[in-house]
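Journal club prep, shared notes

We agreed each person brings one worked example of a sequence with its structure written out as tokens. Mine is Beta-lactamase-inhibitor-like PepSY-like domain-containing protein. I'm keeping it raw so we can talk through how to read the token line rather than staring at a rendered picture. Sequence first:
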Amino acid sequence: MRPFLVSSIAVIAFSLANLGYAASGPAAIPEKVVRNILKRHPAAQELQASQEIHFGQTLLEVSYKDEAGQSIMELFTSRGHLYTNELRIEDFNEIYPQVVAELKKEFPQHELKRAELVGNPNGVGEEYDVYLHAAGADWKVLITGDGKVLDKQPLSP
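Then the structure, token by token:
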């Protein structure tokens, strides 16, 4: 392994492991995951991680910028293997109509802030992480492509 790569892994892993965050907030990135990312994107920077649940599994979401400055989000299993990518939806009109209908039902007066799409690598189906503002609070909603709300959490009062 090249000295730069080894030192980069060590610095990133040590820095993130010592942050001491709870599982619901930022999370430490295991060295195996850092190596996986740096093997594919040697100049990756600004690595951040959090725990998320998709398709019934607790996964580590790692976001970073690649060598071109593009933001990338990837999900890793508890064993450190790449599970799938998470795609940021830039145009909210691309969200499935049944998802939009259910969001309107659950949150009649809401404003979409951000949406991310996760495709199931092991079968059919998608899940969305939708961030929205409703009733004076920010929410994170996990919803299937069929429009079934799996979880909703207030992010702020």
